[in-house]
Amino acid sequence: MDKPSIGIEVAYALADRQKLLRLQVPCGTTARQAALASGMDAYFPGLDLSGCPLGIFGKALSQPQERVLLGGERVEIYRPLLADPKEVRKQRAEKAAKAKALGG
Q1: Is 54 helix (H, G, I), strand (E, B) or coil?
Q2: Which of 14, 37, 65, 74 fits 9 for a cystine, CB–CB 3.0-4.6 Å?
Q3: Cβ neighbours of residue 35 closer than 8 Å, sequence gap 6 or more
Q4: Which residues 6+ apart lie within 8 Å of 5 measured at CB?
């Protein structure tokens, strides 16, 4: 007898294109297993499905290898941040302070 399955979605997006895949996975599948099973790396060469950050409906998962999916959920594959947001804000504040000091 086949193991019961659930329908889920796996999504990934770049600035200029995106892909949404619908999958049937066995009950008990984790977010990481679903990302790996999606084959999304075939559409986006270089995408590291084994280590990239994952989330469900916009909420980042701290332990995607442990989070068991429910039917209808959408696993989102996140791109790694190119710059630390705190560092970017700090640099922006320093630039604004310099401009203010120069009378700008």
Answers
A1: strand
A2: 74
A3: 10, 49, 52, 54, 64, 75, 77
A4: 24, 25, 26, 27
Instruction: For residue 49, give the nearest of 10, 81, 14, 23 by alpha carbon.
Output: 10
Structural domains in the chain, CATH included, are: 5-101 (3.10.20.90)
| Residues with Cβ within 8 Å of residue 73, at least 6 apart in sequence | 8, 9, 56, 57
Residue 55 binned pLDDT confidence (cut-offs 50, 70, 90): very high
User: Nearest 5 degrees, angle CA 81-CA 87-CA 93?
Assistant: 135
Place of tokens 């804000």: 89
Q: What is the pTM of this model?
A: 0.76
Task: Give Cα 97 to chain centroid, integer Å.
Answer: 35
